[in-house]
Write a structure and sequence with these properties.
By secondary structure, the protein is mainly α. The chain contains 9 helices and no strands. It starts with 8 loop residues before the first helix and ends in a 10-residue tail after the last helix.
Length: 191
């Protein structure tokens, strides 16, 4: 199997079973997309570490990759969702521990710092507020559909949920985002 630019991700991953260096092609193809997905919910430096973790996991699990799937992107984004969930849980645990141990109840996590690091256009504050106002499940389906242009079956596979759940979450996410953006703003969110 070949790791040339025209080889599918599946062909490259299978080839990497015997020649691990070939996995670099998958990394080169998809690191940017995985990073941008994670940076949509986490500060850039955290997102870079999480993206690296996704590829460490993918490399370790490459023999479990299903070669009947030519693109590895849904597989990688599924791992990114899991890494993001773990990071969110760690933050929540750390925040709870901080609140318990802190005598100053006003010492919450500084969200201004995270917002300052967002790589979003300054002209789109309504969209950022809308995305931040979505649940993690709503955010994941909306970003996978609108930004990464995954199909409903690919989203279902990425998140490990039924196709009907993808449809209902996406409809709910779009409706909720429109509510949060407000009636005076029109932002394209339909896939």
């Amino acid at each position: 199997m070949d790791s040339t630019p025209w080889a599918s991700d599946a062909e490259v991953i299978v080839a990497s079973w015997h020649d691990p260096v070939r996995f670099e092609v998958v990394f080169s193809r998809h690191f940017g997309t995985v990073f941008r997905f994670l940076a949509g919910r986490a500060p850039r430096d955290e997102a870079a570490d999480m993206a690296a973790e996704v590829f460490v996991r993918a490399f370790a699990r490459r023999r479990r990759y299903r070669p009947d799937r030519p693109s590895a992107l849904p597989w990688l984004l599924g791992m990114a969702v899991n890494v993001l969930r773990e990071w969110t849980r760690r933050l929540a645990r750390a925040d709870r521990a901080h609140r318990r141990s802190s005598s100053d109840l006003e010492a919450d996590v500084d969200t201004g710092d995270a917002e300052a690091r967002m790589d979003a256009d300054e002209s789109a504050p309504a969209l950022r507020r809308a995305l931040a106002g979505l649940s993690l499940d709503e955010y994941n389906v909306l970003v996978l559909a609108a930004l990464h242009q995954l199909t409903y079956p690919e989203i279902a596979d990425t998140l490990g949920i039924p196709l009907g759940t993808v449809r209902s979450r996406l409809a709910r996410a779009r409706r909720r985002a429109r509510e949060l953006i407000g009636p005076d703003r029109r932002i394209y969110m339909d896939g």
